Amino acid sequence: MTDVLRSIYYWLVTGLASLASLLFYPCRVEGRGNVPRTGGFILASNHISNIDPVLLPVVCPRQMRFMAKDSLFSNPVLGALIRCGGGFPIRRGKADRNALNEFLHQLELGYPVLIFPQGTRGGEKIQSGVGFLAVKSGKPVLPVYIEGTDQALPKGKVLPRRHPVRVVFGQPLVFGLQEAPEDVAEKVMAAILVLGQQR
What we know:
Helices cover 40% and strands 17% of the residues. The protein is of the alpha/beta class and 199 residues long. It has one domain: Glycerol-3-phosphate (1)-acyltransferase (3-Layer(aba) Sandwich), CATH 3.40.1130. A 7-stranded mixed sheet has the order 1-7-6-2-5-3-4, with helices on both faces.
């Protein structure tokens, strides 16, 4: 698939996601001006609902990429939609070198790439992956806080219900190449949670 065709598919899929947002989870966005206009960066967000990876491409002004669990790609139609929306597969529960390399590759191509430091919805343990990728790539990390999607689509539910959501983009964070990935991950998650306290 050519870059132009992929871009067209991306905005078509994102347009459908935007319509779903308007109907079911109207979104208030804060700090959109903090999103870098050019260059690759890591978009690091809290994760509270399956809506989150669908919503963030809608509110981010840049065409972005994200990892999705490989089981979602077993359905040909769903897998095609995820790929058109910028997703690529990752094997959960193990170190997936191919997914990590693809993550770094997309950063080098100049795309924002999404990662959830919690790993899973509502995960309490912070994964060091975001720290490793930030140190390895040398790219800035943009913290993002999402609020309300867990009410629009609670865990275990298939269909969303109408509920307003809020997304806050923070200031980009830059880390040194010698910093420990675990420390970087903790700092990123702390920055995300601070955004949630802003009113």
